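ok trying this again, last paste got cut off
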Amino acid sequence: MDEVKVVVAHSERATLRVGDVFLKVDADQGRIDVEVEAMALAPVPTPKVLWRTPPVLAIAAVPGAALGRLGEPSTASPAAWAAAGAAIRKLHDAPLPTRPGRAGRGLDELAADLDGECEWLVTNAVLPADLVTRNRQVAQAALRPWTPAFTHGDLQIAHVFVDGDEITGIIDWSEAGQGDALYDLATLTLGHEEHLGDVVAGYGTDVDLDVIRAWWSLRSLLGVRWLVEHGFDPTAPGCEVDVLRSQT
């Protein structure tokens, strides 16, 4: 029997790897529904669904290696980053799914959540008040009208796989749906600003870099408490807190 490897595990979901098969166990079957539907619709390489028996979804591993990981230098080539940008553009140009995604939250709801998280960070002395205030100001640029696109919603670099300069698969589609295209670009380049130019070149159209930077601040401010409460460390080198510091 192949070794069982825990890829990620917290109170909401767990992912295990057994050989070339990933087993995703999720307490919310709605997220699994979104993932299966999005992979069927997306015009980019996605994992093959092997079987589904709630609460477990089995998918095949995609070839290649992750584009990188947050907090670590990426060894992928500029051409691979550009290929990721081109794949994202193809996704964003595809027909819209019916569901709203993580990148499609209403502006009023998002602003309220952002204000609440900033207050929590300062009140509990998790981060310095001036750091939070400055990043809240930067984040404001993301709170603007946007044209809906087919978005992945959680496009961190560990979810994009490459072989050489070719995209071989994009995984973890549970947050997919209609949303702000620049949210995906910002998520991919979070903590890897040095590759933003490559991604934008591959994306092939002008983007508002100030909005991407705003999403870096907004996503990081919203993520710190969740990461802490689920056993992750946002203060690790190159991760969310460092991103917030770099914005000032």
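PB: full thing came through this time. Helices lie at 29-41, 78-92, 107-123, 129-139, 181-189, 196-203, 209-229, 240-246.
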